[in-house]
Design a protein that fits this description.
This protein is mainly alpha-helical and 753 residues long. Helix content is 46%, strand content 10%.
């Protein structure tokens, strides 16, 4: 295809004469007389003009990050083996022996969803609402705090895509198809027409995906485009592309994440996947000049203005916001190739120049200066023919540190199947590294794994704050680093934070948030293959409690402020999202303040305790402001594929299931009591094809209900998690896999004013 595209365009724009270019026969180009002037006249006559513009320079507004100082001073306390000193143990009837033992040994225990109250597991905050009604002290987890940022981020990205990026992508695609069609119709040279025809097919496929039209293209090219669309719609896995001739993993076109179920977003997803998945090889060793030429031609066409329409501005309108949200492209972009063209051919280049052999040596030298992608296909057997290495993509997928880490641990380096523990380990968790070795290495070389892990940890540790704060994706990862960082000195910390089980819980918490991050950015990130009810006046006081992860709340506060100011600066922040971010900032401020007080053994105020009591309703209200409330009655569970294993035809899926309960033993005024909250349930497993959220919900026992114009979800208690794969066995240190039969009677206990 590269060959065809390049030839066509070259010819079309610069000259319509008989230059017969075949990638394999460049001598024909040398012999042909190319009238560059007439070609330029053609461009002008068709309302086209070449304007080499620069990429819009966006400056991120920096937000100061200052970690909070504190000194832990929590008094020592213990739990009697029979739980006899737990003041409100009578509020938790039905604990099994194993669950009680974990509670005594660790100071906390995590429980599966209780089928008798399945409704309370639809969303992360529902348990807190039940706590409010049944007068159970809240234990507000890092998991809930992280989850709420995911909700804002996901809905924000969805809104930007639907209201702004989709429109820009429609127009950009239509313009590119129109320009290539003009070039095709005006050239009479058959070789050039063949090349332009292929470029035309490339954009006709995209136009069909986004605008539901192939455009007015010749029958023979229409046939190719239709075959390509059929492969995309069937999404059966690896197959030879009718247009490109190499294998494409068409399962990547399965619409998933927040795109599924919305007609506009589904079209946007498939089109961006087409632009981001398909690559034109640019390797300087054993070069494919067809591919190289075509990539330059597409770049050239993009910079052609048609009747004053600025396609570069449209391209940038899509790329710039997604760069801030998800990171920089990992592949060669049109601006990278623009610089190559300027350095080799000059700004007055004609399309026909791309076919001139005399430039090839200098061209390859310039291409050699371009960086290779950091995330590449490594799981390709001889039966799969997909280009790897340096490539041009029209709207390339993005580099992320975590994907880079996963790739380094994949076969043939270490093993074919990565794990989220690789990422947590590289981010500094020795426990995660040990768990990965114990559970996922099997008979493979442990020393090699250790060596790669050391290299990855050094890479992560070398990053400075400026590196972490480039975009929202890296800022989110930076926050997770704090979740996974072990607090070595446990002096003055509460009982439940002084054991390995809590460290394992933190690994799981971080991975749950990581699964949400991957879910939200599935399209962009490159893979290595309620009511707020009132309280009652009660007789006894047990304060609500915030998981004391001060550094995490510091970073979440930074992340929210950074999101708000830079999105507003880019005119991407609507009023409702600004309100949501402001509200979330208030929540994180509350969490941080209370966490510091708890650690320093300072009582929280009555007002702070009241806010913590009603946190479930507060979080529900924030979520309802993000989108149509009638579409909010859906499970918080998400799923995402993060790596492909081509040789066995499978994908590594990571996700969150239904929220789990956590019971934590706390101390107040010399008394021990239990508080309750929710944590992520983390899943990691192989599946034959990428899963959508709806498919994942069905596996968890969540059913979609359609009643008239109402569409909502509810949990079938009889099918609760019956079809779900098992969770990682390493979470057994803190989670009970026995049935949750805990019953909470409605007895009035005072939670404070």
């Amino acid at each position: 295809m590269l060959n065809r595209v390049f030839g066509i365009f070259l010819c079309c724009v610069m000259l319509i004469t008989g230059c017969s270019k075949n990638v394999n026969d460049v001598s024909a180009n040398n012999e042909a007389e190319m009238d560059r002037e007439s070609g330029n006249i053609l461009v002008q006559e068709e309302g086209l003009s070449l304007v080499w513009k620069d990429l819009t320079d966006y400056f991120n507004v920096q937000v100061e990050f200052s970690p909070t100082s504190y000194t832990p001073k929590v008094p020592e306390y213990k739990i009697n083996p029979d739980l006899s000193n737990v003041e409100n143990i009578d509020r938790f009837e039905g604990l099994s022996k194993e669950q009680s033992t974990k509670l005594v040994n660790n100071g906390f225990v995590v429980l599966n969803p209780n089928p008798e109250k399945a409704y309370y597991y639809m969303k992360m905050y529902n348990i807190y609402e039940e706590n409010e009604y049944k007068n159970i002290p809240n234990f507000i987890t890092v998991d809930v705090a992280l989850h709420m940022y995911h909700k804002v981020y996901d809905e924000l990205l969805k809104g930007i895509e639907k209201e702004q990026l989709h429109v820009a992508l429609q127009q950009l695609t239509q313009n590119m198809l129109t320009k290539t069609s003009i070039l095709y119709s005006k050239t009479e040279n058959e070789a050039l027409k063949h090349h332009v025809g292929e470029i035309m097919v490339y954009f006709a496929v995209a136009n069909k995906l986004i605008n539901d039209s192939y455009g007015d293209i010749p029958k023979e090219y229409m046939t190719i485009a239709q075959k390509e669309i059929n492969e995309i719609e069937n999404a059966k896995g690896y197959a030879k592309s009718p247009l490109f001739g190499f294998d494409i993993n068409y399962e990547q076109f399965i619409v998933r994440g927040h795109y599924a179920g919305d007609e506009i977003l589904e079209k946007y997803f498939k089109t961006m996947m087409w632009y981001g998945l398909i690559g034109y090889p640019l390797e300087e060793k054993n070069p494919d000049f067809d591919s190289i030429i075509q990539a330059m031609m597409i770049t050239y066409i993009t910079f052609l203005e048609m009747n004053g329409q600025d396609d570069i501005a449209l391209w940038d309108k899509i790329y710039a916001p997604t760069e801030f949200l998800a990171g920089q492209a990992d592949d060669v972009t049109i601006f990278d190739l623009k610089e190559v063209i300027m350095n080799v051919y000059g700004k007055d280049v004609a399309l026909t120049d791309f076919l001139d052999e005399q430039y090839y040596d200098s061209l390859l030298k310039e291409l050699g200066k371009l960086p290779s992608p950091q995330i590449q296909y490594r799981l390709i057997t001889g039966s799969v023919d997909t280009p790897a290495g340096k490539q041009f993509r029209f709207m390339g997928q993005r580099y992320t540190l975590d994907a880079n880490i996963m790739q380094e641990f994949m076969f043939p380096i270490i093993r074919p199947i990565p794990t989220g523990l690789d990422v947590a380990g590289a981010f500094g968790s020795q426990r995660a590294e040990n768990l990965a070795k114990e559970n996922y290495l099997k008979d493979l070389d442990e020393q090699t794994y250790t060596d790669v892990m050391t290299r990855m940890k050094n890479k992560v540790e070398a990053l400075e704050q400026a590196d972490w704060t480039q975009n929202l994706y890296s800022g989110w990862l930076w926050t997770l680093k704090s979740v996974w960082t072990k607090q070595e000195n446990t002096q003055g910390l509460p009982l439940f934070m002084k054991n390995q089980a809590w460290e394992d819980k933190n690994i799981s918490s971080g991975l749950g948030s990581y699964a949400e991050l991957k879910h939200d950015t599935i399209l962009y990130v490159k893979q290595p293959v309620a009511e707020m009810g009132g309280g009652e006046e009660l007789t006894e006081y047990y304060p609500n409690y915030v998981e004391p992860a001060v550094e995490v709340y510091d970073k979440l506060l930074w992340l929210v402020r950074y999101s708000q100011i830079n999105l507003k600066n880019r005119d991407l922040l609507s009023e409702r999202f600004e309100y949501a971010l402001n509200s979330l900032e208030e929540v994180y401020e509350l969490f941080r303040t209370c966490a510091v007080k708890e650690l320093e053994n300072i009582p929280i105020s009555e007002e702070e305790n009241r806010e913590l009591k009603y946190i479930g309703g507060k979080l529900e209200y924030i979520e309802d402001t993000l989108s149509d409330q009638y579409s909010q009655a859906i499970s918080s569970a998400v799923i995402s594929d993060v790596a492909g294993i081509a040789d066995i035809g499978a994908f590594l899926e990571i996700g969150t299931g239904l929220p789990n309960e956590i019971l934590v033993a706390l101390a107040h005024d010399g008394k021990v009591y239990l508080a309750r909250g929710t944590v992520y349930s983390y899943y990691e497993f192989l599946h034959e094809k990428p899963l959508t959220d709806e498919q994942w919900h069905e596996m968890l026992g969540v059913e979609k209900i359609v009643e008239d114009e109402w569409v909502y979800e509810q949990i079938n208690s009889e099918r609760l998690q019956k079809d779900a794969p098992p969770q990682p066995n390493w979470i057994a240190s803190f989670k009970s896999f026995e049935d949750n039969k805990v019953f909470i009677p409605h007895i009035e206990y005072n939670l404070g004013q």
